[in-house]
Amino acid sequence: MMVSVCQHLHRAQQRMKAQADMSRSEQTFVVGDFVYLKLQPYVQSSLVPQAHQKLSFRYFGPYKVIDCIGSVAYKLELPPSSSIHPVFHVSLLKPAPSTKYIVSPSLPNIDDNLQVPKAVLQRRLQNQHEASVP
Questions:
Q1: Strand 131-133 and strand 126-128: pairing?
Q2: If 0-12 CB within 10 Å is exposed, 13-18 middle and 19+ buried, where does residue 78 land?
Q3: Which residues of 115-127 are buried (b: 16+ CB within 10 A; e: fewer)?
Q4: pTM for this structure?
Q5: Residue 3 three-state SS
Q6: Angstrom distance (rounded) from CA 87 to CA 75
Q7: pLDDT attached to residue 73
Q8: DSSP bridge partners of 131
Q9: Which residues pair with 66 in a beta bridge?
Q10: DSSP label at residue 125
Q11: Which residues does the UniProt record annotate as the domain Tf2-1-like SH3-like (predicted)?
Q12: Mean pLDDT over the full length of the chain
């Protein structure tokens, strides 16, 4: 009887593990990759001081991966002013998007030969909250 109960428990645990593993994905990072770091609210104050913790960011960074420690821990290049240990579990890291697209700091040149309408052909008024809005 006891052997049967143990077998059923083991089989149920295997089914629960298989179900939980379906939603998990294994993340691996290479030295030199950039990642975002998820921190607990009490640790955030040592990295980025905020007046209100409730309004702080979920992820900080991007930070560069310096070293791979084991299969699930990575050492990050944190700012020198931070007072936290630089090794984090892979579950706290999120890959940062690559910087393929460069954002231009200057505005594009616009022609002065813009089209200007000659006349308004049709106009419609809408009543919103007892006021007419064009």
A1: antiparallel
A2: buried
A3: eeeeeeeeeeeee
A4: 0.58
A5: helix
A6: 4
A7: 94
A8: 128
A9: none
A10: -
A11: 32-95
A12: 81
